[in-house]
Amino acid sequence: MLVFQNLSSATKRELVTFINEIRGDYVELSAQPSETIEIIRQRLPELGKNINTALNKLIKTIRKLPASSKEAFQKYWIIFFESLSAPTPLRSMFLAAFFAELHDSFKKAEDSTLVEIYKASPQTFRLLRSDFTKEFAYAAKKYARRDLKMKAPLDEQDGF
């Protein structure tokens, strides 16, 4: 993945420390993508350079898409960063639900959308169609529902 290519050992160690600090609630992430990316750039300058390159590539790819696809991408971009910034007890459930929803949308996408995805990134298309991704999405959905049930009051669990 472009973002993690050619990172020094020191940056990789710092990234692990940073992730553990996020998990431990020592670092709070914003639901605003630009703020979260800026936190990463300040803390991990080497990773920040890779993020710039990856974001530029992503923006170029998105510009090629029709308006409806751009709108759908924007929705998932926001949901992803909201999931990242969720309170620690809910973060893993939100991220699992995000991935399951993203994969479910891919499965239900119209043929024209699938063609757009393939043209923009054949590797992404193949990954989304892979057995690994199907199994991962299934497990993510199962985890998110189980975790949500465990956190919900008993009188609300019938709705799950």
3D architecture notes:
There is one protein chain. The protein is an all-alpha fold and 160 residues long. The protein folds into 2 domains: 1-63, no CATH class; 67-160, no CATH class. It is built from 8 helices and no strands. The longest helix has 21 residues, at 88-108. The relative contact order is 0.09. The protein is globular and about 45 Å long. The protein has helices spanning 9-23, 33-43, 45-63, 67-84, 88-108, 111-120, 122-129, 131-151.
What can be said about this structure in brief?
The chain has helices at residues 9-23, 33-43, 45-63, 67-84, 88-108, 111-120, 122-129, 131-151. With 160 residues, it is an all-alpha fold.
Supply the key terms.
160 residues; mainly alpha; 2 domains; 8 helices; globular
Sequence-ordered SSE layout with sheet pairings:
Blueprint: H1 9-23, H2 33-43, H3 45-63, H4 67-84, H5 88-108, H6 111-120, H7 122-129, H8 131-151
Compressed to H and E, one letter per element, the order equals: HHHHHHHH
Estimate the helix proportion, in percent: over 70%
Helix/strand-derived class? Answer: mainly alpha
Uncertain runs are: none
Total count of helical runs of at least 4 residues: 8
| Largest sheet, strands/sense/barrel | none
Distance between the termini: 35 Å
Approximate shape: globular
Total discrete domains: 2
Mean pLDDT: 83
